[in-house]
Amino acid sequence: MKNTPTKRNLSLFAERVYDMVCAIKKGTVLTYGEVALRSGNPRAARAVGTLMRNNYDKTVPCHRVIRSDGKIGEYNRGGPEKKRALLISEGVILK
Predict the structure, then answer these.
(1) CA-based nearest residue to 5, from 39, 47, 52, 38
(2) Which of 32, 49, 74, 83 is the most exposed place for a label (fewest CB within 10 A)?
(3) Residue 1 belongs to some domain of the structure
(4) Collapsing DSSP states into helix, strand and coil, what is residue 63?
(5) How far, CA to CA in Å, does 60 sit from each of 44, 69, 78, 93?
(6) 62 catalytic residue (yes or no)
(7) How far apart are CA 5 and CA 29, in angstroms?
(8) Residue 18's CATH number
(9) Residue 63 located in a structural domain
């Protein structure tokens, strides 16, 4: 549990998800499905989405996780417009 928020009682999968998301480099994105796969459960894309939706820890860059169709998706800290602005500011080229 490297960069995972420590003030939570997390499942092993949740710890892996947060670690994976914390490892996404600035200027890049992963899909919810890619995060699920790399976290050990390829069928848990929705669970990743739920974890990101409920994440308010600013050390976890949940804005770097997008939908598999390339769309931005939601963002719990300002909506999709804020998520788009953050990604653009980091150099992500969006569809």
Answers:
(1) 52
(2) 74
(3) no
(4) helix
(5) 19, 22, 15, 21
(6) yes
(7) 20
(8) 1.10.10.10
(9) yes
Both tokens assigned to 79: 């909506």
Tokens describing residue 27: 């200027």
Q: Which of 62, 65, 66, 87 is catalytic?
A: 62
pLDDT tens for 2-59 read: 544 554 678 999 999 999 999 999 999 999 999 999 999 999 999 999 999 999 999 9
Residue span of the structural domain in which 63 resides = 12-89
Give the Cα separation of 76 and 40 in Å (integer): 25
Task: Write the DSSP string, 13-47.
Answer: HHHHHHHHHHTSPTT--EEHHHHHHHTT-TT-HHH
